[in-house]
């Protein structure tokens, strides 16, 4: 068995199982993110989201076999395919060391929702419910977007 077979999902069925497992991981983290919104300390929810994404993004990369370390272990042919797919998909978080700056850049994509959440969480009941919904939605959006990028890269590598 080659190194590529050990690291990357080998079939589309296996790739689907990985995607499903990752989506489940995202939903659990999104629920936690929503819970953090209810904490009445300013900024705790944003800090929590950053911390969760710092763990979640590398975990998704790992499941798809797309951490920098996993990519480096691939044979040259598979490595070239993965790098070509990374370029084609144009993602910032797949196959890279995930830093706080990269996570903050990803969060900026949903910054309007996050800013609204900060204001809404201090309004009684309806505002808090809206803030939780925005938080959950933002985390699901970021997580699922990353899963989709990983899926496309891995699928492209499988097909080639």
Q: What is the radius of gyration?
A: 17 Å
Low-confidence stretches: 1-5
Largest sheet: none
Give the N-to-C terminal Cα separation.
18 Å
Description of the molecule:
The chain is mainly alpha-helical and 160 residues long. It has one domain (3-159). It contains 8 helices and no strands. The chain has helices at 3-7, 12-37, 44-64, 68-73, 76-89, 100-108, 111-120, 126-159. α2 (12-37) packs antiparallel against α8 and α3 (44-64) runs parallel beside α8 (126-159). It is elongated. Mean pLDDT is 80; it is low at 1-5.
Quick description:
By secondary structure, the chain is mostly helical. 78% of the residues lie in helices and 0% in strands. α2 runs antiparallel to α3, α2 (12-37) packs antiparallel against α8 (126-159) and α7 (111-120) packs antiparallel against α8 (126-159).
Main features:
single chain, 160 residues, mainly alpha, 8 helices, disordered N terminus
Give the topology, please.
Blueprint: H1 3-7, H2 12-37, H3 44-64, H4 68-73, H5 76-89, H6 100-108, H7 111-120, H8 126-159
């Amino acid at each position: 068995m080659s190194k590529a077979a050990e690291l990357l999902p080998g079939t589309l069925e296996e790739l689907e199982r990985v995607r499903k497992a990752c989506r489940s991981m995202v939903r659990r983290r999104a629920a936690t993110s929503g819970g953090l919104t209810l904490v009445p300390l300013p900024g705790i929810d944003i800090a929590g989201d950053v911390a969760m994404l710092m763990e979640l993004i590398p975990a998704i990369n790992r499941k798809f076999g797309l951490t920098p370390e996993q990519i480096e272990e691939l044979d040259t042919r598979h490595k070239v395919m993965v790098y070509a797919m990374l370029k084609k998909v144009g993602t910032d978080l797949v196959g890279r060391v995930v830093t706080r700056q990269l996570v903050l850049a990803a969060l900026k994509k949903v910054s309007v929702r996050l800013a609204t959440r900060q204001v809404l969480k201090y309004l009684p009941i309806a505002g808090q419910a809206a803030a939780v919904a925005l938080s959950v939605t933002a985390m699901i959006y970021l997580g699922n977007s990353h899963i989709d990028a990983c899926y496309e890269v891995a699928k492209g590598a499988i097909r080639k």
